[in-house]
Amino acid sequence: MTTTTLPPIVEALLNPEIYDHPVQGEIELIQTHVSYVFLTGDYVYKLKKPVNFGFLDYSTLEKRKHFCEEELRLNKRGAAELYLGIVPITQDADKFVLDGSGEVVDYVVKMQQFPQETLLSAMYDRGELTEQHLLDLAKVLAAFHKSAPTNDYILSFGEVSQIRQAIDENYDQTVGYIGVAQTQEQFDQTKAYTDKLFAESAALFKSRVEHKFIRECHGDVHLRNICFWNNKILLFDCIEFNEPFRFVDTMFDVAYIIMDFDARNRRDLSNLFLNAYLEQSGDWEGLQVLPLYNSRQSYVRAKVTSFLLSDPSVPESVKAESKETASRYYRLSWEYTQPRQGKIVLMSGLSGSGKSTIASKLARETGAIQIRSDAVRKHLGGVALDEKGDASLYSPEMTQKTYDRLLELGTTLASQGYTVILDAKYDRQALRAPVIEKAQAQSIEIEILYCDVPAEVLRDRVAQRQGDISDADLDVLANQTFEAFSETEKPLVKTLS
Q: Is the keyword Nucleotide-binding assigned to this protein (predicted)?
């Protein structure tokens, strides 16, 4: 694109002389449908286009200033190092000046420029995105959600009527692509799932509101809007222009990352991230709405790609590739809505027997949800996962509460199609029996994996533990014993040694 086709204010921002700092090489211009982005080397400047798409309105100077301020405010939460400020563009005669003394004609958001190779999407493509990055991302996003504001107005966006409006709109806007990029069966079944969920699960959505999981979230937290820069995970470019896109269930954000990895056929990585996020947040109940948001994020990606198929200016080669991409996302959206058979796996064994290591490996291989009793206990007790609990956290009453919570989560989630690994000692028949009874009463498959290793191995493992959420030490281990399995339990037990 030549600069002669651009508005004068854009041409001015392509001139290095307008900036009060050195410009490295030629200024690079990136255009989206809503903004011009200028890369100068050390800094980035974003100018909003004077457009109104209904869901986004930058049509007046006043509105562009407001949304620049919102972009700065909102992104300071997850990427304060990147978002530096708002700079007015002034005009003196026929000359545009950054932060001059003339009449203000527009505003730009000034950001720290960072290497594009630090995007998580780029790191994944190069094979440099590690499991530790995903564990760190889970902590960052859980902390982001915990501190995200909410109030009665924000919570109102968790009502079924609000949620389904945008989802139904997606279906209306993609009817024309049935038989082109998705099948009639996929469309009908995906829509039937959301219709049924909204009609029959009002109590579930009400619970999400009551427990304040509708917050001012990021709204667009996919792998291209996350970077690992200066050894820190940063969440940037959140939705500032539309409240319904930002005032959402926290699982709405989580679903973007899950969908991104699933679309890359890396469900092992999405499982690793999901289990880490759930453990950090304690929001295992959120799994009940996660398929809805997984399907929604994938469907939107399919919809936006489908629109290219109707654009006469798009080359046929691009359309062919877009059709294949859209089809893949429509199929993924449909897959998220398909029924699954749930199962409960009870881990059992003393501290240091390898329960959590095996449970984590099994979860990655099968897509299961791993729920560790140590995390459940600390969430119940209000103790940070990386802090050691006092004696009250390990009282008989708190232990009973912990196992009651595991029972509730296990049966609730398994009844909705999840394989749930309850990762705890389950060293007493009195702890195992309620799970077995309730699972069998609900026709949920149940299996017990018993980790049986020599006492000296237990002691070595516990002594060498570092950075684990478990507080069990050698003194705790010395007081542990395991109650043998009953005759009714034995058919369910698989011993690992």
A: yes
Looking at the fold, whether 355 and 303 belong to one and the same domain comes out as no
pTM: 0.93
The whole domain housing 473 covers 343-496
Boundary-marking domain end, from 113, 145, 178 = 113
Give the residue from 89, 55, 58 showing the smallest Cα distance to 71: 58
Write phi, then psi, for 376 (nearest 5 degrees).
-60, -45
First-residue to last-residue Cα distance in the chain: 66
Q: Which amino acid makes up residue 28?
A: E
Beta 43-48 vs 35-39: how paired, if at all? antiparallel
DSSP state letter for 41: S
Q: What is the DSSP string of 146-183?
A: HHS---HHHHGGGSHHHHHHHHHHHHHHHGGGBTTTB-
β-pairing verdict for 343-348 and 419-423: parallel
376 is written with which tokens? 């459940």
Domain closes at, from 314, 336, 358? 336
The secondary element (H helix, E strand) that includes residue 493 is: strand 493-496
**Do 142 and 187 belong together in one domain?**
yes
Instruction: Report residue 1's pLDDT band, with 50, 70 and 90 as the boundaries.
Output: very low
Task: Round to whole Å and give the CA distance between 135 and 337.
Answer: 27
150-170, pLDDT tens digit by residue? Answer: 999 999 999 999 999 999 999
Average pLDDT over the chain, rounded to an integer:
93
Residues 337, 289: contact at Cβ < 8 Å? no
Please return the burial class of 355, using the count of CB atoms within 10 Å of its CB with bins 0-12, 13-18 and 19+.
Answer: buried
